[in-house]
Amino acid sequence: MSILKTAYEKDLYPEIADAGDSEFQRDCVEIAATKLARGEIDRRGFLGALTAIGALTVPGIGGTAKAAADELVIVNWGGPAVEAYQKAFGAPFTEASGIKVVVDGTGPLASKIRAMVESGAVTWDVCDTGAATTLVLQKADVIQPIDYSVVDKSKVVLDYAYEYGVANYLFSYILAYNKAKMDKVPTSWADFWDTASFPGMRTLRKQPNGMLEAAMFAAGKSADEIYPIDFDLVTEKFKEIRDDTIVWSSGSQSQELFRTGEVVMGNIWHTRANLLNQDMAGDVVWTWNEGIVTAGMWNVPKGNPAGTKAAMDFIASAQDPADQVKLFLIMGNGPANPAAAALVPEDRRFADPGQPDNWAKQIKQDARWYKASSGKGDLTNDAYARELYIDVMSG
Amino acid sequence: MTDRRVIFGRAIALGLAWTVLGFLVLPMAIVIPVSFTDQYYLSLPKENLSFEHYLAFFEKEIWIDATLDSLIIAVAATTAAVTLGTLCAIGCWRLASGAAEAVRILMLLPIIVPVIVQALAIYRFWIDLGLIDTYLGAIIAHTLIAIPYVMITVSSSLTNLDPRIEQAACNLGASTAQTVRIVILPSIMPGVLSGALFAFTISFDEIVMMLFITSRAVYTLPKRIWNGIQDHLDPTIAAVATMLMLLTLLLLLIELWARRRKQARMSAVVEEE
Amino acid sequence: MTGALRLKYWLLIAPALAAMLVFYVFPLVQVLWLSVTEPYPGLQNYERLLERRALHRIWWTTLQICVMTTVITVALGYIVALAMTLVGEAQRTAMMFCVLLTLWLSVLVRAFAWMMLLRGEGVVNDGLITMGLIEEPLRLLYNRFAVIIGMVHFMLPLAVLPIYSNMTGIEGRLVSAARSLGASPWQSFRLVFLPLSKPGLIAASILVFVFSLGFFITPALLGGGKVVMISEYIRVSFEETLRWGEATMLSTVLLFSVLLSLGLVARVVDLRQVFGAR
User: Fold this and answer.
1) What is this model's ipTM?
2) Mind listing the pLDDT tens digit for each residue in A134-156?
3) Mutual orientation of helices B52-59 and B235-272 as an angle, nearest 10°?
4) Chain B within 8 Å of A260 (Cβ-Cβ)?
5) Least CB-CB distance to B233: which of A8, A250, A256?
6) What are the residues whose beta carbons fall under 8 Å from the beta carbon of C236, sequence distance 6 or more?
């Protein structure tokens, strides 16, 4: 079967499943679109916010269009404010470099990137993926190393300047709770697991990513003992709590469970907790304590049409802290440039995962662990964890 | 004859049966009052009845677009399924051979095969054909799963048709096409109509297949409801559900009417003989 | 009939047959094929079926839920079908109407209605709290209980129809004869009517069981992601973990379980009549 004619290339490369980080980006676009629709932000704000991750589609730019050398194609997860974003995002970079920016919202699935590179028909220059996906693509040998003589390592939060990918924003799995429905305030995953002292339903994600770490904390492990995840231990922990748990499969669903009062606590994305906080008059709050932070990343496919230099220049320009803060103010994605922390308005700092105070309370998710072999057949830790998680949660 | 025990037993059976039927119908009825709620969240009406959630349905593009998508696909799939299914049923009926019987059983497959298995199979094949997230892909898929229902209703109409009619038409010099069009089709019209109603309902309500073979370009009403239920439960869904119930009721009444006509026609034939 | 005429009628069959073979049967065969060739040729996918504890659990959960659903559905369906044989034309039409209306109603609408009833802030809990019967809402939704209720509700019409169709074929005179021979109403029911209605019961049981096996929507919505039946696991295998070998292997096993069950039922009752009853 031909690789090129398939619509969903991910099916051809089961071994390079997206590491689950793409879902977060799609969720961000959804949040921004909702806000725009409700009139909570204006179009200008929307544009500015998306600057840092580039989430726009230009109609007519499909996966097959060949990008010319004088333009740069950024691939993201699409969104409704198409032409507007093009103006906001393209303009500054075009002004500085003379290179036109085109944003394609088809979604940079890992499998698509691989199919494109292997077929020699690369049309994308810079892709918005995640830490784990970066490692997957690196292993598949289809992306270029980041040129750190152009991209500034000091403008990236420690450790998220990978050899083949660099962070463009941060997001966290945190413990959110509805304080209006609780007598006491939970402050740790151990509290989350303590159904006697903190009665009520909880919600965990349908995938184990971000949940395993919480279970390790709940089992009494300290921040530096989280990895490697002890499968037997977390299995026991999930068994303890599964009867009091509903699972969420999308960001909006996690919000919905709080909104309709089905749950009082949850391990959800901080962007969604932030929205809940606004929507429910401050009833829903969260703690950064034992949060699990991870990053969205820029990747450059091998043989990208605009050439390595243009792509690296673009990534460097997207490190601008002011743009990253705009993104944060509207969608909640944490700026990846540490210099941005000081630019965040005082009253919004509580919602920024990268603020030094918040950062210190969290652990960094270890993408490398997820992609390592589990020793169980040919399964990676990620694949084995998914199987185990379904088993234990439905037991 | 009026044994007390009989009367007692019958009363218990009837009471239980209506309880079970209540379990069947009443929970569904809850959707109706909720759709008229004056609140913005799912609840029974508090102060007064409100039509705002129906208005919301007609004002929001996402719902209207989804309804149109569903209609386009259902109408096209129904047309295709009724055409293919009716011709096939007539052929099988007239041939009445072992091979024709095998075809008839083969055509029932989509009812029998678990829905997830056929969704997986078709999804996989549609990738190769480039039919993912296209109207054509959705229409073909729905045509396939609707054909068995057309086959069943049309075949059941045909069993009441005397094959000699068809032979008589042949003897009078009618071609096969003429025979089918002028003689057979009019006599089995109620069965074809039932089949069309089934096919339309099957396609209009189908969700599992759509979850796999469509993504953004094709967005049917059931998919919109599915996402609504998971991501944003609001009374608009109750309004949609109520309208779907009315539609179902309407289609069922038409179907029962068609069935009655079929029976009337049968008894008329019997009387003539 | 002449050969030429036969050919003409085969031409009527051809379009539907071709569509079914190309777009339906071929993809199904491809699934079976993939189960022994993905990711490499061999039976390793089937070995997983024996080895992996997670898979055992999923099958066990599926079987438990299907058996419970079948038992409850067939018992309730029998009562309705029996009552339909006892009442007059008007009431029978009303009963049949309830059954058919539910049968035709979208599975999503039905699951949605149950969610509204069973939610923590749903109609049932609100009602019980208002009446002062409970203080805290009961956990009615997002568990096995909710899934079974939803499935029984879905399957009930499918059970009533074959049972009723079988009962209408039972000679009323046999029951009367038993009565005139001195049997009590209960005895005549238990010793004469019940055994005669057995084919309908068996057909309904297997039908309900078979349809339950492949159920997808109701467990997904009412189970809150925690009641994972085989269909949901197949979805995870090919959508999330992208293991086509495992997904197709499970699909193959599921498909053959269904065909085997139907093969059994075909020995007892005329299947076409059962499906035709719809």
Assistant:
1) 0.90
2) 888 888 899 999 999 999 999 99
3) 90
4) yes
5) A256
6) A386, A390, C228
